[in-house]
Amino acid sequence: MNIVFCDMAVSVDGFSAGPNQSLENPLGVGGLQLHRWHLERPEESAAEIAAIVDAGAFIMGRNMFGPIRGPWDSAGPEEWRGWWGEEPPYHGPVFVLTHYPRESLEMEGGTTFHFVTDGIAAAHERALAASGGRGVSIAGGASTVQQALSAGLLDELRLHIAPVVLGAGERLLEGVGDVQLEQLGVTSSPLVTHVRYKVLH
């Protein structure tokens, strides 16, 4: 089914990353705690983990792709190729929002990063066309999810709520307006509560 969905790990106080994100600490201070459920006990959330990358195409923000800011060559002569090594987990087309043009980057395992400079609506259109009739995943980060919600492009929001209070950082649902949600399902384990919502348009 060709729906647009999003999976995001969040703290109970609504943050998807901690403060002071950096190359050495990409999830910010305390942010790694949000992901214990799939790093430490993957068998408990196997279905949710598999669903995260079960899409025909993906959209992500530049901050999720990497820590480089400004022009792509501002980091020096070595080209940044993402956080995931030579074989990222997406195995399909990934459309990265950016203000700076860059040639598409083909990786091992079928992942190709395409860099989109004309906004979330253009990335959404390209991802739908490239998805082969399968779903499109808004892979993050928070700003990209906010843009998709504000533009009415998201059909399903899946929150993976960790029993963690970060107190500060990058809040997921900041500035998205009056978003109406219908709860579709809940499952839980000691490290996470998975909640699926339909976004009502």
How would you describe this protein?
The chain has 201 residues and is of the alpha/beta class. Strands 5-6-4-3-7-1-8-11-10 form a nine-stranded mixed sheet. A two-stranded antiparallel ribbon has the order 2-9. The chain is globular. It is 17% helix and 30% strand. The protein has five helices and eleven strands; from the N terminus they run ββααβαβββαβαββββ. Residues 4-187 form the Bacterial bifunctional deaminase-reductase C-terminal domain. It holds the Pfam family RibD_C. InterPro entries: DHFR-like_dom_sf, RibDG_C, Riboflavin_Biosynth_HTPR. It comes from Microterricola pindariensis.
How many strands in all?
11
User: Compute the gyration radius: what is it?
Assistant: 16 Å
* General form: globular
Order of helices and strands: EEHHEHEEEHEHEEEE
Strand order of the largest sheet: 5-6-4-3-7-1-8-11-10
Overall pLDDT confidence? 94
Q: Main beta sheet, described?
A: 9 strands, mixed
Low-confidence stretches at least 5 residues in length (pLDDT < 50)? none
- DSSP helix fraction: 10-25%
Q: Helix/strand/pairing class, anyone?
A: alpha/beta
Strand content: 25-35%
Distance between the termini: 18 Å
Our count of helices gives 5
Domain Bacterial bifunctional deaminase-reductase C-terminal: 4-187
Protein name: 5-amino-6-(5-phosphoribosylamino)uracil reductase
Pfam families: RibD_C
Organism: Microterricola pindariensis
